Amino acid sequence: MSKAKGKPLPDDVKGYSQVRLDVDLTTGKIEKSTLSNEFCRDWIGGYGFGAKILFDELKSGVDPLSPDNILVYAQGPFPTTILPTSSKYGLFAKSPLTGMFGMSISSGSVGAQARRAGINAIVFKGKVPELSYFVVDDDDYYLVPCEKMLKGKGTFETEDLLREEFQDQRLAVMSIGPAGERMSRMGCITNDRNRQAGRTGMGAVMGSKNLKAVCFRGTKGIKVAHPVEFYKIAKKLIKVANGPATAKYRDQGTPAGLTSYNKLGMMPTFNHREGTWDKITNGAFTGDTLNEDWVVKKVACSQCSIACDHLARVPKNHPDWPNLIASVDIELLYGFGTACGNADWPTVFKCINLCDNLGIDAISGGVTAAMACDLYTDGLITKEDLGFELPFGSTTNLVRFTEEMILGKGFAGEIFGHGTRVAGEKLEEMGKKGASSYAMHIKGLEMPAFDLHGMSSFAVGESVSIRGACHLRNGAYGLDAKGTFDRFGYDKPLERGKAIKKLEDVYGIIDSFIICKFTRGIYENDAEIAKVYELVTGLPMDEALLLERGDAIVTLSKCFNIREGWTRADDHPPERFFKMAHTKGPAKGVTLKEDGYQQLLSGYYEARGWYKETGIPTDETLKKLGMDFVIGKLKPAPAKKGGKK
Amino acid sequence: MSKAATKKRGGKMHQFIIVDPNLCTGCETCESVCSFVHDGEFNPINTRIHRVRIEPVFNIALACQKCEDAPCVRSCPEKALEKDEETGSIIVDNDKCNGCAFCIRACDFGVLSLHIESQKALICDLCENMKEEYIDEESGIKEPQCILVCPKEAISLKNVEQIGEETRIEAVKRLFGDILQEYES
């Protein structure tokens, strides 16, 4: 029984607007309903709401790109308050990349504007007959056909045109580019120009529904339950959020990690063949160089004290892209930089800019480009195939490849336009044996900027992530980077499992609140996080209940995956980490060991209260989390076309 | 901020909120807190300080410049606006203001607006009219809350003499940096 039982549930809840919209895109019918106080308390917000709605309302086995899929927009109780990094929103659907639970979180001004319009969640079903955008303008909700105005337009121009149309420069716009329209499985959603809900192909799902954009604006004020106390604690948190706890995100930004992970042999280079690079060691491709030579401005999302968005500029005398601006972080410097062996900054910036504007996830895009460079270098694809050369270290040809990949043009678009897994499958079908082993993904989602050769704990942390390869579901890379456990060994499986679970439960809450993981360190402890929730919502909350709900949210999204046909074999890193060792650096000669990995994986399942052998939650665990409604519903539907392979 | 720094000089008080665009990140916290301390709810549409973002890189926030011969005061057909000689702020008489918005049209900086519910003019009052319960315990006085919460310390309250002098000192440092360096310890 959940710890929530027995806690008083007040009648008046603040923070949440509790408004849910159901938009049937096929018929145009829009319904408004109320999220109950209990639902808000038990599922917290963004991630929790997405997991609960998808588990309850999406039939298993549907084609993610068919009208049967549903797309959930959800946010927590904080947007528009001055709580640091509160203006975040999430999108949830069955993912076309993974065939499993899809989720992607973004920031900017969307969460705040949606909240002021009075929205807590929107559930989009079906498909609009003609390309359209959806408007939430306070209590007016409507669809506008936009074939002529917006078809084929990039996200930057779409946002500009819609703001012009509304004569409102503060209009919040989530939109897809031509890649989302053509349903590239890597399709992302861009808002406020530089913020993306990038991962797991939520832009493709929008495209499959003929939904080009969603616009929000509102004029309603937000009251909190305990304003005087909240104001005091918020002022303190704003100060702390600008102190040492977040310095690494503010100053150099995440690219500082290029140097620190390079030192540990954890910085993936050359499509994860190596974990170090001389271009980082010699200072050519580092956070220092980026900031000194290229960054012109740091910009913040609404209500963010950190301002991590590092905007880099190509100089105005550059022959190809004068004055081009790109929003840069380590993931993208990895994708189009270190993973492709490309240290030419302007071409990295151009590739990032293309992804954000034309609308694919720049992590998936970069890793897919790195796969192509790797295949080219080994001769599995050729100049004759591509029409140009593409060895590691390509610069302008990398830009050409990236544009074709995004737009689905030529060989690059045909083979690589839907990410690494599909590319591997297509090449194997063409008789290119072993091509899939170049695809660096887990469950179909391309890997983030960590090389797992010498990271035995994070090999598990990243593999168990419910949305596929991801560093943000539990952040367990810290266990390896900080030396909490032996990163080359496989001892203490249960302890490691417990450590990963603890992080994952907290991250489950952070993604439901939704606040930014960069502010994790500004709270004194988890009890203070619970206190802030209580002050805003008026719902009684403590650390134990909060962590239980984090556990429940992670478990429920896992149950979604099980229903879609997930098995233990899906929680596994790519073969490269087991078979191909680094030739230099701190992890030289090291590979992951299958036996050891499997032991650690079992330790994680055990720590979660899931069956050690199968990774399926026990009935006892489900009951303890107040999830009796799941019991008996974990049988996968027969696989259909477009579902999980 | 000490009282001495914003003293009334020569019988005139001309001080106002200024924001450094080099420091401003466009986070909108100033707007949210402005509405909160005046109305008890977060609603940046009722702010008296306004963030402006010109894509892709420029961010700043603007508030009332406290013009000496203020066009908003002159333009008000209801004589609802008046300059407070003590603080330099433009005070709105809500009984007289009829929401005609002529002041908004008159302002050269676009820093006036109408409250979304009451439709009365909103002008930066340096938090003179903020709610008592949100006064900072440490300072114990009503003071501009946007300055207190700005994460980047981009916002400050300055009088005109100060702004000129600070700019002059910066200019001299630029122009005569070599000479100044010789005397640095």
CATH architecture field of the largest domain in chain A: Orthogonal Bundle
Strand order of the biggest β-sheet of chain A: 2-1-6-3-4-5
The chain-level mean pLDDT of chain B equals: 93
Share of β-strand residues of chain B: 15-25%
Q: What is the chains' assembly state?
A: heterodimer
Strand numbers in spatial order across the main sheet of chain B: 1-8
Anisotropy-based shape of chain B: globular
- Please give the alpha-carbon distance between the first and last residues of chain B: 29 Å
Q: How many H/I helical runs of chain B?
A: 6
**CATH topology of the largest domain in chain A, what is it called?**
Aldehyde Ferredoxin Oxidoreductase Protein, subunit A, domain 2
As a whole number of angstroms, the C-alpha radius of gyration of chain A is 23 Å
CATH second-level architecture of chain B: 2-Layer Sandwich
3D shape of chain A:
globular
Main β-sheet of chain A, in a few words? 6 strands, mixed
Could you name the CATH topology of chain B? Alpha-Beta Plaits
Strand content of chain A: 5-15%
